[in-house]
Write a structure and sequence with these properties.
By secondary structure, this protein is α+β, with helices and mostly antiparallel strands. The chain contains nine helices and eight strands. This is Crp/Fnr family transcriptional regulator.
Amino acid sequence: MDSLKKLQQTVFSLHQLPEADWDMFAQILTYKTYKKGDTLIKEGELEHYIYFLEKGTTRNYFLKEGKEFTVAFHFSGEFVTAFYSLITGAASIVTIELLEDAEVVVIPYRDLEMFYQKSFHGATVGRKMAEMQYAHRLEKEMELLSLTAEERYVRLMERNPELVAAISVKHLSSYLGIQPESLSRIRKQYARN
């Protein structure tokens, strides 16, 4: 199935699966399309799926006292889910919103766990994905604690220039932990350079 090529490349970059294991994994997958503004999950719901973005961008956020706090963005070629809910079985603490039309491979978590039991190589991919998620989260926390807003913006520009171009000032400033006015000033400064 050609639509799974990007997912296969991403999985194999973590750990090579034997062909029989890949075929077993591919059987649990479904393919869905979403429109801009749709949600994969809302705060308070239970998460049962992991999503692979064939095409599209998502934003993870939570509400506190009526204000949105953006905690993550995910892009084409990445996995996204409400990890806290998926792992603990508790209600999701985030909403995952599509920022553009998207094509998504849906992986049911219950089926994925059964696949891990049947496939040592599959379980290795799962472990490496979890390790990667932990490393990304730790890196973001360290940046928030040790870098200025301008330094965080520059790092984001270096890693994800498409993020900076495509995401609204409101969502991007929330993600960076700064006021929209401060982000606008920083953007203007770097636009001149």
